[in-house]
Amino acid sequence: MPYHRITMTHFLLQEQRRKGASGSFTALMTDIIFACKMIAHEVNRGALAGNHGLAGSENVQGEDQKKLDVLANDIFMHMNALGGNYAGMASEELEDVHAVHGAADGKYLLLFDPLDGSSNIDVNISVGSIFSILRLPEGVNTIEEAAFLRKGVEQVAAGYALYGSSTMMVITTGNGVNGFTLDNNVGMFMLTHPDMKIPEDTKEFAINASRSRFWEPPVKRYVDECQAGKEGPRGKDFNMRWVASMVAEVHRILVRGGVFMYPADSENMKKGGKLRLMYEANPMAFIVEQAGGLATTGRGRIMDMAPTHLHQRVPVILGSRNEVERLDSYHAEFDGK
Ligand code: P6P
Questions:
Q1: By three-state DSSP, how is residue 37 classified?
Q2: Measuring CA to CA, how many Å separate 269 from each of 6, 155, 156, 312?
Q3: What is the structure's pLDDT at 233?
Q4: How far apart are CA 152 and CA 232, in angstroms?
Q5: Whose CA is nearest to atom 16 of ligand 1?
Q6: Of 193, 212, 233, which residue constitutes the final position of a domain?
Q7: Among 208, 254, 327, 331, which is 20 to 30 Å from 214 by CA?
Q8: pTM here?
């Protein structure tokens, strides 16, 4: 390991000194980092530790929970309660928000999807954890859902862990995006991807094409044009990817560009789409925008959305700026705007 690399903790300390912050970012992130290391260990152990398969329970979304969904949620809840920084937490796996007792000085709220893409666990495809950090609103003394319902623009930090061929964490505190790789020899996340930027153009799109019969016309138009290749209106060939793990898709886009779409369609429109606003779309939108990309519903900026309930769903189009702008323009044209 080149010894000029710096650890994630040192990086955060540097960030704090540079911003003259109160020192909370390092404290806030320390427990999240530890939780992600523990989850990485359990994911990597997989079948050896009996971690594959179903837990025999359902989450608030009515989805069958995998054993690792439950384990990752328990790890996130336990580790992040210990530090006393969070007054409350909210998880994809839990119906209600959780007040952290004894966190007298907890000035922050933590929202997370402890294991996103868990349908991939048993087939050994990358999964991840996604988290979003909000300030506890002034004057709020009781931890109820309303305290969490803040716009994405109010996030103080966001990030994800990707349990892939290597374990990585990617974070933003509103000052760009930086990526860290877990060095298992020393058990530390090391800065390996400083100042990540999403290329403005791409030749790669990601969408679950099995849903094409449900798509709205602007989405169908965009995908058809990509598939028409260089003979078509785009004048270039495109490639398609679909991992069914948002963390893996977003990470690929951060590294080499691309556009990710999980639009609302005729089948999921009543639910508002598939992906959840508070702990999937908002944190990923914060990261993507901080890396120079865009994140919209096709009809507005994701981070400007005023949440109405904790587990609400939202259409998601994010990635390379010029592609998201094109999709937004197709939606505006379709809507007659
Ligand atoms: P589908 C995983 O369940 C997830 O929330 C995202 O990580 C992923 O992008 C999407 O849903 C996959 O959805 O419909 O392809 O299974």
A1: helix
A2: 45, 26, 30, 12
A3: 97
A4: 37
A5: 244
A6: 193
A7: 254
A8: 0.96
